[in-house]
Design brief:
alpha+beta, NADH Oxidase, 7 helices, 4 strands, globular
């Protein structure tokens, strides 16, 4: 699929079939995230792969009861790792760059999933401490996004987008 066609056809998917995600596809998604640009090429983020049904249930509860997460066979949790940026970039690295790194990596994973015929949706509403408990990390990492991934169980209508004239300023 052409890149611009991929952007046009990508949807936020909140319903998944029971078909498991093949290891090769999951690896390709993780590899795509690993290719994402990052501040100083420090890759100041960590990715946690959640596949266990009990942990997916706990993750959905930590995500303010967004129970569609449980339907996905895989959820990726992207965490900022401030320590990886702090020495080189100081406060700006720990408060911004590591967050940007995690979000860019998640966006690359989201697009890779779509390119592989999978669905995903960016989940940003959650209790950070609850997510930390589910993935087993503490204050040193900050959860930034959850990306449930699976075979789409829905085909949402295309949503409207802002006109470039109202978005771009010269």
């Amino acid at each position: 699929m052409d890149y611009f066609e991929l952007l046009d056809k990508r949807h936020s998917i909140r319903s998944y079939t029971s078909q498991p995600v093949e290891d090769e596809k999951l690896h390709a998604i993780l590899q795509a995230a690993n290719c994402a640009p990052s501040a100083g090429n420090l890759q100041a983020y960590e990715i946690y792969v959640v596949t266990d049904a009990t942990r997916l249930q706990a993750l959905a509860r930590a995500a303010l009861d967004q129970m569609f997460i449980v339907q996905a066979p895989v959820a990726l949790v992207f965490c900022a790792n401030p320590a990886r940026c702090s020495q080189k970039y100081g406060r700006r690295g720990t408060t911004l760059y590591c967050i940007q790194d995690a979000t860019i990596a998640c966006a690359f994973a989201h697009l890779a999933a779509a390119a592989l015929g999978l669905g995903s949706v960016w989940v940003g509403a959650f209790d950070e401490d609850g997510v930390r408990r589910v993935i087993g990390v503490w204050e040193d990492l900050r959860p930034i996004a959850i990306l449930p991934v699976g075979y789409p169980g829905e085909k949402p209508d295309t949503t409207s987008r802002r006109q470039l004239s109202s978005l771009v300023h010269r």
